[in-house]
TrEMBL record:
Domain (Acetyl xylan esterase) ranges: 1-317
Cited InterPro entries: AB_hydrolase_fold, AXE1_dom, CE7
Any one Gene Ontology molecular-function term assigned to this protein's record: carboxylic ester hydrolase activity
Catalytic site: S188 (nucleophile), D275 (charge relay system), H304 (charge relay system)
Organism: Saccharothrix saharensis
One GO biological process term: polysaccharide metabolic process
Annotated PANTHER family: CEPHALOSPORIN-C DEACETYLASE (PTHR40111:SF1)
Protein name per UniProt: Cephalosporin-C deacetylase
Binding positions for substrate per the UniProt entry: Y94
Source species, domain of life: Bacteria
Length: 322
């Protein structure tokens, strides 16, 4: 895919023109308070010691949006015992779930504890999931991006972002986690959730890594690219024209470009200038709102992915800031 979005100079200056809802902070405060009020204690069950040997792995169940039980993994480095460790909360890309612990072994191998959040209602497209979405009745395009889109209170992404914020809170409460050294990390949908978790958890998150993040600058994205998953929304609204005003209003409440100004974490984002899934301008829309210390890794010839060398940059960034 050739360059199709704004020039690099324009990207550096680009700001979303989507207006923030007047009550956004109070609205999110209410969602999180409701989730905490409905929460039960997390349950951690030792997992497959015969496979992972000295690597400590737990199958996690915790309370997310509305008290819904969300699955995850908690993984600690071999030989770390009960030592309090810096911990990375990880989120998964669209269509995937938490997978298996072996898919998340890099960070424990270099000394970090990892808390992996499963993605409600997803998993199976490219890796395993184990968490159902809470019931919802209403029309939707195949996928989850239009589920409940007529209202921010019923929208799927609202539930997902509350889960993401709660994952940070739950991780911070676990034995062996240094609650003063928590990072959030993910790519694509996981990157969008990392931005949301950093915004909604404030100073509890010290480092934010968001690779080619999804869920940012929705109203530009759905008119700029015809690639999934943003295309789910456009195709749905092409038929449900009566829902266009309500849907566009809903998207403002979960827009990473609007939430990003609340991020206090030291942040490292990445962008592919040939990315037609999450167009570069939508990534910069979030990045340019962050006022905390930040860096952008720019990959001129990459699409919706990052080169493997970026993994080492993220590890160095964690060493420097966590």
């Amino acid at each position: 895919m050739p360059w199709f979005d704004l020039s690099e100079r324009e990207l550096a200056l680009y700001r979303t023109d989507t207006a923030e809802p007047d009550n956004l902070d109070l609205w999110w405060k209410t969602r999180l308070e409701d989730a905490r009020a409905a929460a039960l204690p997390p349950v951690l069950t030792p997992y497959a010691a015969d496979a992972y040997g000295p690597l400590s792995v737990w199958d996690v169940e915790f309370s997310g949006y509305g008290g819904d039980r969300v699955r995850g993994w908690y993984i600690r480095p071999a030989g770390s015992g009960v030592e309090s460790l810096p911990t990375v909360v990880c989120y998964i890309g669209y269509g995937g779930g938490r997978g298996l612990p072996s898919e998340h072994a890099l960070l424990p191998s270099v000394g970090y504890a990892v808390f992996v959040m499963d993605t409600r209602g997803q998993g199976g497209r490219w890796t395993l999931g184990a968490t159902p979405d809470s019931g919802f009745a209403g029309p939707e395009h195949p996928g989850v991006m239009t589920r409940g889109i007529a209202s921010p209170e019923t929208y799927y992404v609202t539930r997902l972002m509350v889960d993401a914020a709660r994952a940070v809170e739950v991780a911070a409460s676990l034995d062996g986690v240094d609650e003063t050294r928590i990072a959030v990390s993910g790519g694509s949908q996981g990157g969008g959730l990392a931005l949301a978790a950093a915004a909604l958890n404030g100073e509890a998150v010290k480092v934010c890594h968001a690779d080619v993040p999804f869920l940012c600058d929705f109203q530009r994205a759905v008119t700029l690219t015809d690639a999934e998953p943003y295309a789910e929304i456009a195709k749905f609204l092409a038929q449900h024209v009566d829902l266009i005003p309500a849907a566009l209003d809903t998207l403002r409440y979960v827009d990473g470009a609007l939430l990003a100004k609340r991020i206090t974490a030291t942040s490292l984002l990445s962008v592919g200038l040939m990315d037609e899934v999450c167009p570069p301008s939508t990534v910069y829309a979030a990045y340019n709102e962050i006022t905390a210390p930040k860096e952008m890794a720019v990959f001129p010839f990459s699409g919706h992915t990052t080169p493997r060398v970026h993994d080492e940059r993220k590890l160095r960034h964690l060493r420097a800031h966590l």
